[in-house]
UniProtKB/TrEMBL annotation:
Name assigned to this protein: Golgi to ER traffic protein 4 homolog
Pfam families named in the record: GET4
Listed Gene3D superfamilies: Tetratricopeptide repeat domain
Species of provenance: Musa troglodytarum (fe'i banana)
UniProt GO BP: protein insertion into ER membrane
Family: Belongs to the GET4 family.
Matching PANTHER family: GOLGI TO ER TRAFFIC PROTEIN 4 HOMOLOG
Record-linked InterPro entries: GET4, TPR-like_helical_dom_sf
Recorded GO CC terms: cytosol
Amino acid sequence: MSRSRGRRGELPPSQETIEKLEKMVDACNFYEAQQMYKSLSARYAASEKHAEALDILQSGALIQLKHGQITCGAELAVLFVETLVKGKYSYNEETLGSLYMMLTLFNLDRVRKMYEGFPNIPIPEHLDDDDDMQKLSEALVAAKVRVEGCLSFLRAAIKWSSEFGAPKTGSPQLHNMLAEYLYSESPEVDMTKVSSHFVRGSDPEKFASVIVNFMGKCYPGEDDMAIARAVMLYLSQGNLRDANNLMDELNKQLEHKQLELPDSDLIQFIKYLLQALERDSFPLFKILRQKYKTSIDRESLFDGLLDEIAEKFYGIRRSGLPDIFGDLLRVSIAISG
């Protein structure tokens, strides 16, 4: 029967192909299996069998990741997203209850499963000798490979979602995933990049927990900067609700740990800023910028964000100013990791 199918040029059922390739991976023939995953999924896609190609690529990505083949798994995960694009699979959260919506959720669930397949491996601590330093060096290299692989996949997924039904900045759920992975897995955490994705996400509570965790291990003076940056990034999008939600959640989580917000002029400025925006008071906004200029100048990003906040809330824009947040997000997606 298979010979007859081969003569006709027909493709076997995708499950048959998946089982065959999984056996190759289980036998540690990783490279050979990888080439087969790529070539066979391409044949299914070329025959307009995009659903079957997706099944093969998802299975391949997950089993390669399970075997620690991060580069292979990431490559197949990116090909999975490219096949979503070729097959014009939509991302749409509006049409609840319809088959169209179920397909959309299924696609997002598949992306989430592949994201969860990327390993989380702690970097060793308490190093005493040369062997330990060698282990640390190897762990850092491995961490960089994991992060780069996962980020290439999630960046592609965000781009797909932005073009096929999600908000123009990409799926909030995917931004949540990217922010969490950047924070938990990057050998050197860049909180600006982490924050730029969290504020495009949909989980201020999780964002608050990450900031609280960061406060417990950052250098002195970085804690209030992280909080101020997060709040102003939300506000630069006109999102006063989540900026307030973040502050409320930070207070709640810190109180639970019997801690408090940093006692600094910058945090005082943020509290007053939120009040000024609630009152829709531009004169108070201007006074605050002048009064707390020294604190604002601690990070070059802040002044530009405040210009964007003035435009969003008061319709006032200095001519020729760049879109600070948009530029930050584009750079973060392009070079994260």
